[in-house]
Design brief:
Blueprint (H helix, E strand, L loop, with lengths): L2 E6 L7 H14 L4 E6 L1 H8 L5 H15 L7 E5 L4 H11 L4 H5 L2 H10 L6 H4 L1 H10 L5 E4 L4 H17 L8 E4 L28 H9 L20 H9 L1 H12 L5 H27 L2 H29 L6
Parallel strand pairs: 1-2, 2-3, 4-5
Helix pairs in contact: 3-13, 4-8, 8-9, 10-13, 11-12, 11-13
Bound molecules: adenosine-5'-triphosphate and magnesium ion (MG).
Length: about 325
Amino acid sequence: MKRILTGDRPTGRLHVGHYAGSLQNRVRLQHEYETFIIIADVQALTTHFEKPEMLLKNVFEIAIDNLSVGIDPNISKIFIQSMIPQIAELTIFYSMFVSTNVLKHNPTIKSEAAQYGYNDLTYGFLGYPVSQAADITFCKADLVPCGDDQLPHIELTRKIVRRFNSLYKPILTVPEALLGNSPRLPGIDGNAKMGKSLGNAIYLSDSSEEVNLKIKNAKTDTNRILLKDKGNPNLCTVFQYHKAFNSLESDNIMEMCKKAGIGCVACKKCLSNAMNIVLDPIREKRKEYEGNMDLVKEIVFTGTEEIRKHAEETMREIRSAMSIGYF
Ligand code: ATP
Ligand code: MG
């Protein structure tokens, strides 16, 4: 069975962008692929090293988010990055042959550095794509469901794998990215990316009232001021949400908006209904898991223990390929 490695940083709760970008694919493919879901707490520290205490709460929030959208713990494994020290070991080995210039020119690193206002990048932040390559390759993943901000990192991983295989021994798998139906959902503020650290997200855990309110205030085509003005759906955040969560009606909405046949208020109500229909069963499942935190912890603990076996197996192969082993 081929393998999937995918995951999230525990920097906050997951949102509808994650759902459309990656979670939907995880849930759909978990029956065809052996699925490993990483809660990337070390990677979260690259931007949140000053408040490590936030990890404790968020690690389990992320686990619940994954379980409530339909990740089945009997077939998929959820694990915590920092509890697999082999990933850190592999990161160090890779870091010997990855050039810092390649990292400095990585477009996602550049845009995230700008977003966080970093001028002088830390060693850990600049190098997180290398650590991510270790996440993907320690378990020899074939496929990585993710949003399009991850594409430069997957490309780097592919290069690292090829380099390792030619330098030492061809034992690693070259992974492929798999984008979701909305690889970059914009934020309600009109920002090109909905991000859990950006304060512009509709969370999977939001109540229907919160969803209605957020959509009511979401940015639309700013050129459309009056009801009789024709809209441009391609410039409208709300229309991107229609495409991701109301696909059956989105063509019709597009036509109506273009000829001013529907106003923003009605269009937003229609979206809120569609989104709440998707979110309702997720909310139900969340309630069950929130009421049984012991089970959630057990799922993550068991998943992590199992993954550690795979990690040690690969590391033994890697150390041997690199002739590291002295006794
Ligand atoms: P942070 O702001 O803390 O980095 P994030 O919202 O970017 O949080 P991550 O945990 O970094 O979330 O990413 C998890 C996965 O979700 C990645 O595959 C990423 O590409 C995807 N993703 C994140 N935001 C979006 C979005 N707005 N649209 C589609 N996919 C997204
Ligand atoms: Mg991110």
